[in-house]
Specification:
Its EC number is 6.3.4.21. Pfam families: NAPRTase, NAPRTase_N. Catalyzes the synthesis of beta-nicotinate D-ribonucleotide from nicotinate and 5-phospho-D-ribose 1-phosphate at the expense of ATP. InterPro entries: N/Namide_PRibTrfase, NAPRTase_N, Nic_PRibTrfase, Nic_PRibTrfase-Fam, Nicotinate_pribotase-like_C. Keywords: Glycosyltransferase, Ligase, Phosphoprotein, Pyridine nucleotide biosynthesis, Transferase. The protein has a 6-stranded parallel β-sheet with strand order 5-4-9-8-7-6. The protein has a 5-stranded antiparallel β-sheet with strand order 2-3-1-10-11. By secondary structure, it is an alpha/beta fold. Helices cover 44% and strands 14% of the residues.
């Protein structure tokens, strides 16, 4: 195999490392399972499996270099014992189960949370790039560069967006490693004020950018199994995060069991401790209005809080939300596929790898968008919805 997709264990999102550090310190014995899902039912991965397998073998040979470890060690929220652990760390191929039946890719990851948490993002990047290599029809780099320049110009031509801030969140569904680097480099050079950074640690390190991210759905999901009472799982997850980071990385994800259920747990204590919230499903305007009203009910000025939007954004939709809410909060935006995979004549793969169990117990993501809900145990899904007073008709 030449020119592998993943060349560094840092070629992943920051929040995988921040969650991994928390797992090391608080739940090192937890066992989990993840499952791959493509929401594009018509795709045929049959001719991709052999190459994906070779890419996985290469991924599992990688280790962090001393330069990469030194970079992580300079981040003020990364602790020295975690660096020592990472010096010995390598992904283990035995935890991945890969097959393909009638063109449908079947992929699961099962093992210790501490040793499997870093698989998700590079595996998705591998699947996306391998599929694009074999099936991208009508790819036109010149046209893609022109579209990228149009997006940059959209920001440059607006004279009233000095506090508009967005980041690259596009690693997992990118067209290729090379294209993501080209996009991020162009954004950093041409929009130095508005481009806040990238979730990709490898690019942040090599290009001198700010790494961006906090926590993901799996962290909140795991606590559905880690705690004594399901009803307390969100509060336990937020407490664990506060315990680990003591006020740093203070953006909370709201949609694991839905925004309404989240806000019932996000009381004055958490509202003051966390810097803001992240929206990843549902109607962003409705979500924002709920967040603003929640802060105001607690006599917290929402203009002091950051609201991060990361659900299928385009540059146009991000700017629209910014203009609508810029005077009521501090909006920020994580833009993914729209930046890193708009080269093909057809839509990019809409795919995820999500945690489905922890310590042998089912866990679920209900989401604020029906298509994003994920659970393989209907009985547990019904129980979760009952406990958190969620109407299953809105998520099925």
């Amino acid at each position: 195999m030449t020119d592998p997709v993943i060349r560094s264990l840092l070629d992943t999102d920051l929040y995988k490392f921040t969650m991994m550090q928390t797992v090391l310190h608080q739940y090192p014995a937890a066992e989990v399972e993840y499952r791959f899902r493509s929401r594009n039912a018509e795709l045929d991965f049959g001719d991709c499996v052999e190459e994906i397998e070779a890419e996985i073998e290469h991924l599992c040979q990688l280790r962090l270099t001393e330069d990469e470890l030194a970079y992580l060690g300079r981040l003020d929220y990364i602790k020295s014992d975690f660096i020592h652990f990472l010096r010995l760390f390598r992904l283990d191929r035995r935890f991945i189960h890969l097959s393909c039946h009638q063109g449908e890719l079947e992929l699961s990851i099962k093992g210790p949370w501490l040793h499997t948490i870093l698989f998700e993002v590079p595996l998705l990047a591998i699947i996306s790039e391998v599929y694009c290599r074999r099936h991208a029809v009508g790819t036109d780099l010149a046209a893609a560069r022109a579209r990228l320049q149009d997006k940059i110009s959209l920001v440059q031509d607006d004279s009233d967006n000095d506090d508009f801030r967005f980041s690259d969140f596009g690693t997992r569904r990118r067209y290729s490693r090379a294209w993501q680097q080209e996009v991020v480099t162009a954004l950093a050079q041409q929009l130095p004020l508005q481009f806040a950074g990238t979730s990709n640690l490898d690019l942040a390190r090599r290009l001198g950018l700010k790494p961006v991210g906090t926590l993901a759905h799996e962290f909140m999901q795991a606590f559905q199994a880690l705690g004594p009472r399901l009803i307390d799982s969100q509060k336990m997850a937020l407490e664990a995060w506060v315990h680990e980071y003591r006020g740093r990385l203070g953006i909370a994800l709201t949609d694991v069991v839905g925004m309404d259920a989240f806000l019932r747990d996000f009381d004055l204590y958490f509202a003051k401790l966390f810097d803001g919230l992240r929206q990843d499903s549902g109607d962003p305007v409705e979500w924002t209005e709920k967040a603003l009203a929640h802060y105001r009910r607690m006599n917290i000025d929402p203009r002091s809080k950051t609201l991060v939007y990361s659900d299928g954004l385009t540059m146009h939709s991000a700017l629209d939300l910014y203009r609508r809410f810029r005077h009521q909060c501090r909006p920020a935006f994580g833009i993914g596929t729209h930046l890193t995979n708009d080269l093909m004549s057809h839509s990019p793969i809409n795919m995820v790898i999500k945690m489905i169990s922890c310590n042998g117990q089912a866990v679920a993501k209900l989401s604020d968008s029906p298509v994003k809900a994920m659970c393989e145990d209907p009985g547990y899904l019904a129980y979760l919805a009952q406990v958190f007073d969620v109407d299953l008709a809105t998520v099925k």
